[in-house]
Amino acid sequence: MRVGACIFNQNYTDWDRYEAEERGETVPARPQKSDREVFAEEINLARIADQTGFDAVWTIEHHFTPYTMVTNPLQYLTYIAGITERVDLGTMVTVLPWHNPVRVAEDVNMLDAFLGEGREVILGVGRGLGRREYAGLSIDQGEARGRYDESIQVLKQLLATGECTFHGEHYDIEGLRLRPQPDRDLSHNLWSAGGTPETVELIAKHDVRPLIIPTTSLEMALQTAQAYTSLRHQAGHGSSTHTKLALWTYVAETEEEARRGAEQYMVEYSDSAMRHYELLGDHFKNIKGYEAYAAGSEALAADASPFLRGFFNSHPWGTPEQTIARATELAEAFGTDEIMFIFKYGGMPIELAERSMRLFAKEVLPALHELQPAPMQVALA
Description:
About 45% of the residues lie in helices and about 15% in strands. It is an alpha/beta fold. It has one domain: Alpha-Beta Barrel (TIM Barrel). The strands form 4 sheets. It has an 8-stranded parallel beta barrel with strand order 1-2-3-4-7-8-10-13, surrounded by 8 helices. Strands 5-6 form a two-stranded antiparallel ribbon. Helix 2 packs parallel to helix 14, helix 3 (about 75-85) packs parallel to helix 4 and helix 7 packs parallel to helix 8. It is globular. It holds the Pfam family Bac_luciferase.
């Protein structure tokens, strides 16, 4: 099984200042810890991943808040390509409604040309959830599903052949050919996150394999993956598929030390996600294609503690042995061919993240590389 490392670039300690500024209160113009300092720290995690045997470095896309500050993951990964030698590079995710899909295909093609033989670029895509982000980019969130559907179809053509003809509501393309000319089919490297039944149905129809990024509980994520497998089978694309799975981790020599770190920083991460996505708000019920989130927001407003403690309660942390056991269990349940681990999140100091990551690389990584999880299989009568 492949094992990746994901860099997030969170500035968690700036949330109170950011939200006060958003409310119109008088606050310092800049955070106590600069955003540039966060970038400098996390770039070193990519170097560690490259040096210690990880298979890939992944990153994510978000805008405007301290949640994560990678605004163009393919640009970021192009820089990472230049400071590493062996790791593949992946996005989890590029949010398609925020981009022209032709430009996304061009960026993937350019990065693939830079990497050359022996390294891959993996394009994980998604639909996006943040209201602030859609508003700041002047994109109607109600159009997200339609834009996403059309973008997937355009990308499948361009990544496979470098050529595209497509006529839709949002994109009208006739006889397009990419330059520099691609020299291989990259469509097998297209994966998609899916947090709603609508998105899961769409990617199953188009036979785009699932990228599992748990935003709620792992139990709900597993149900979503199983639903995808069934829908993909119904669409005529086969009865089994691998997934890629993102997990948060914290590894230490003793369970007590690991518990302290995991509990503090995983809860902080959950808090950052709840604040960025405004999960306590009631706006989802009024956005076409996002109604499924409305019920979740009502439950969170009543009691947010299950969400805040969800990552700590279910993701792999502990001693190396404990981390191997939990990661193995999840890899087999999700039928994954790669787990992308997040090592730095919340307000975790970089020293703790690097220590956890190096211990993981020494004691956990070799065992996970030996795993060969079977793909997720649809239940056939």
